[in-house]
Fold these 2 entries.
Entry 1:
Amino acid sequence: MEKYIINGGNKLYGSVRIQSAKNSVLPILAATVLTDGKVKILNVPQISDLKNMVKILTGLGCKAVFDGNDILIDSSNADCFEIPSALAHELRSSVFLLGSVISRFRSAKIAYPGGCDIGLRPVDLHLTGLKRLGVEITEKNGYILCKCDKLRGNDIMLDCPSVGATENIMLAAVKAEGVTVIRNAAREPEIEDLQNFLNCIGAKVHGAGSGTIRIEGVKTLTGCEYQPIPDRIEAGTFLIAAAMCGGEIVAEGAYPENISSLIHKLRENGCKISINNDKIILENHKRLTSVKTIETQPYPGFPTDLQAQFTALCGVCAGHSIITENLFETRFKYVPELRKMGADITVIGRNAFVRGIERYKGATVIAHDLRGGAALVLAGLSAEGRSEVVDISHINRGYGFLEYKLRNLGADIVRVAV
Ligand code: EPZ
C-alpha cells in the first residue's frame, strides 16, 4: 500500500499538461476489439485503470504494446470472449467490453464490473440495450452470459442518459445489421470522442453530443492512429487545487468548453479565470466566497466527478453551500475524512450542508475512492501542517504522475510505501 505525505500551505504556480481523458481512453480501448486493423492511441494516461484494461485485452488474445506514451493494439488474433472476474472487478469500464466482445465473438462472459464504490452502479440499461439488438442474456453466479446469432440494429430509448450504457450499445451496434438509434443518450464529451474514434476505424456513427445517436452498421473496420481528448476531470481537479491553495496556474492542452460548468462556479467563487485557446489560466490570492448551491447533473451540468473536489473547496470558503449529488447514492464517503481535517460538513441523504471554515488542519485520512481521494489531497495541499492520505491506489486509477505534477507547481507532496 502507498500513501501521500503532504506539508500544506504552499501556493501553486506554473503550468500543468493535461493527460488524455481516462473516460475516453477506456471505451476506446474496448472498441479496439471490434477491428482486425492495427490501432495506435496517442499519449495515453499512465494510470492503473488503463493498465488493467490492457490486461483484459491481452487476456482476450489482443496484442498490446506500449510505445513511449502511445499504445499499439492489434486484435487480429483475439480468440477469447471471457473477461476474467478478478480484472472485471477492478474497473467499471470492463463492462464496456460486452458490446465489442459480443460483436466480435457472438458470445461474451463477464463478471459484474467493479470500479469506485460510489453507489449501486447497476447495469440494467446496458443489458436492456443489448437485448434490443438481439442479444440473449443470462445472469448466473455473479456472471453475465451473452450470446446472439446476429446483432440487428434497433431503436433504443435509455431510461436515463447513462454514459456506460450509451457506449456499450454504440460498440455493439457498429457492426450490427441495419441502423440503430439511441435516444436519451449520454452527451458527455467522451461519448463524442468514442464516436470520432469509431468513425476513424470506418464506422458510421452520428449525433454523439446530442441526445440522439444514429449508427449505421458496417461490415468491416480498419486500423487508425488516434489522439483522445484531454481529461476534463483532471483539468478541473488542478483548477480547484489552485483555487484552494492560492497562486496562478495554467492548465495546458485542456478543452475549456468541456468544463464550462466548473469555470462558471469558480468565477462565482471569486477566482480570476482566463481562456487562451487550449489554456485555462486560474489566479487566486484570497479566501473565496461560497457558492450557495451545486447540483451534479449529466453533461453539460456540473460533473459528478468534480463533486468531491468542489465540496472540499466549499469547505474553506466564506459562507455556506449545499451540494446535491444526483447521480450516485454514496458519493460522500470522503466527508468523514474531511471532517478529521476540521471540515464543518453534514451529509443528509444526497445533500452535503457545508459551513466554510478558515482553513483545514493537517491530519491522516483515508482515500475510499478515486475522486474522493483527490479531494483529500487538495485539502491537504491547502491545510495548515502535515497530512497523510492513505491507500492512494484509488487515486492511481485516474491520475497519472499526480505528485510530480503537483510538485512542479510548488506543492510539498511525496508518495511513500507504507
Ligand atoms: C461513467 O460511469 C464514468 N466512468 C464515471 O466516472 C462518471 O461518474 C459517470 O459516467 C457519470 O458521468 C467511466 O466512464 C469509466 P453512468 P458509468 O452509467 O458509465 C445509473 C470517474 O470518477 N445507471 O452514466 O458507470 C447509475 O446508477 C468515474 O472517472 C443505471 O441506473 O455512469 C447512475 O445513477 C466514476 N443503470 C447514473 O445512471 C445502468 O445500467 C449514471 O451512471 C447504468 C447506469
Note: The chain is about 30% helix and 25% strand.
Entry 2:
Amino acid sequence: MRKNKETWWKEAVVYQIYPRSFMDSNGDGIGDLQGIIHSLDYLADLGVDVIWLSPIYDSPNDDNGYDIRDYQRIMKEFGTMDDFDMLLEQAHQKGLKIMMDLVVNHTSDEHEWFVKSRQNTDNPYRDYYIWREGKKSGLEPNNWESCFSGSAWQYDETREMFYLHLFSKKQPDLNWENSRVRHAVYDMMRWWCDKGIDGFRMDVINMISKDEELPDGKNINGLFGDFSPYVMNGPKVHEFLREMHDEVLSHYDLMTVGETPNVTTEEAKKYAGEETNELNMIFQFEHVEFGGEIGKWTDKKIPLVELKRIMSKWQTELEGHAWNSLYWNNHDQPRAVSRFGDDRPQYREISAKMLATCLHFMKGTPYIYQGEELGMTNYPFSQIDQFKDIESINAYKEIVGNQRLEHDQMMSCLRFKSRDNARTPMQWSNNKQGGFTTGKPWLPVNPNKDEVNAEVEVNNPNSVYHYYKKIIQLRKKHSIIVYGDYELLEERHEQLFVYRRCLENEHLLVLCNFSDEVIKYKMPMQLEQYDVIITNNQRKVLESEMELQPYEAFVIKY
Ligand code: GLC
Ligand code: CA
C-alpha cells in the first residue's frame, strides 16, 4: 500500500549550488549569477529538478553570505536583481525550480535592523536582537560557546550591553520572541515568493527559539558551556514554524527543507510530519556529526555498521509519518567520496558511483552538492594559511592555541573535515583554473582538475557524471524508488550495505560494497526473474555465491 501522499518535491532531485565557487563569468575569481545562468543547460542535462542556491543576498561575507545585510538585494560580487530575475526566468524555461536559502536565525551586524538596534534602548528596533546585561562582574550573561569558537556573547560599546551570536560576532541572533521580527521575516519571504521562487532551505531553523532563561550550559572544554539543550528545538520553535506556515508557506506551492542540527526522529516528525503543517522535510545531522572528538573535529571515518544504523533508523522511524532528505555532503561538509568512499585514484570513480547508488535508492529526496556528480574530492591542504573558512580558522586558533591538539593532528582533522574542502571551485574543464575563472580564484582549484572535470566526464559515458544522470532517470521511471518501504539487511556486516525496497508486488535489492576488498557474498534469496537496473561494475547476472569487487554496487528489481 502507498502510505505517502504523492507530491512533486518527493519525486524531485535537488542540486545545491554554492554560488561563490560555481562559475565565474567576469574573471574576478568569484562565482556569480551570470555564471550560473551559463551553466543551466549542464544542470538540465544532468536531469535535476530543483536548484538550491546558497545565499546570494547582500552581505559583508564574514561567513560567505550566511551573514545577510539586506535580504532584498543581491550581493554585488554575484550581480544584480536583474541577473537574478533572468536566472529565475531561464531556469523555469528549462524546467528547473529555484530554492532560496533563508537565513533568519541571525542577520549580519551590518543589517539595518542591527545598526538601529545597537544605538540605544529606546528605539523601535531595540528588541529585534537578544540583548542582555552582563553579570555583575562584567562577565558575559552566560557561558555559551559560539559555533565558531569563543563566547557566544559580544559586548557592544554603544548600547553598553551584550548581544547573543551563536555563530560569528558579525552574525547577531534575531529575537524571535518579538512578533515584529517574525512578521518582518514573513513579509520578506512573501516578497520572494511573489517573485516566483519555488522553495526555501531554512538555515539552522531549529535554533530560532531560545530558552528565555538562557541558563549556563554544561561545561564542554573547561572554558565554555554547551548551548544545545536551550537552543536546539527550543520551546516555541514549532509554534513559530506553524505561524510561518499559516502566514506564508501555505499560500504558495513551495518545497521547504529545514536545516536542523541535533534533531531526533521524534522532533523530525513534528517539523516534517505529513499533517503538522510546518516543513516538507529536514536535514538530520547524525551521519555527518558522528565521531567528533573535539566538537566536530576528527580525522576518522565512520564505521559502516554505525552508518547503516543511523541511516536505517531515519528510514524506518519516519516511515508513514514524515519525509526524509538524503545527503552525503554540502557546503559545510567535506567531499562525499573522500569521506565515505575512497578518493585514491584507482577507487575514486567506482566508490563515488557506489555512494550515489547507496543514497539515491533510499527513501527521501536526494540532494547533490555541486561537483559530487563528478566525484570531486577533498583538497590536499598542507598549511593553515590556505584556509578561508571562519569556522576552520577559529577552531585551529582555539584548539591548537589551547594545546588541546598538536598542529599536525589539527591539520589532519581540517584536511578531513574542513568546510573549505567543499568550497574549492567547481571543476569544469582541464583549462587553467579548471575553467572556473579566467582570473585568480578566491580559493585554489584542486590539482586533480585534469582528470576530474565536467568536460571530460560529459564526454565519457562511463563517468561518475553519467552514472548520476542514469540514477536520476531511474527515479523518474520507477516509483518504487520514491515511494517504496525500506528494510535493512545484513545489519552487522562490516563491509556491505544491503537493503531492500518494497512497493506492492515490486522489490528492489540494493547492494553496496563499502570496502576495497573482494567480498564473498551469498545472496539472501533465490531469484529466477530479475533485472539489474544499475551497476557500477558491469554485473549482468547474479550468482548465488558472488565475489563482490571493491566498491561494487548494483540494484536489482524483482
Ligand atoms: C548553517 C550554514 C552554514 C553557516 C551557519 C550559520 O549551518 O549551512 O554555512 O555557517 O548556518 O549561518
Ligand atoms: Ca565573478
Note: The first strand starts at residue 14 and ends at 17.
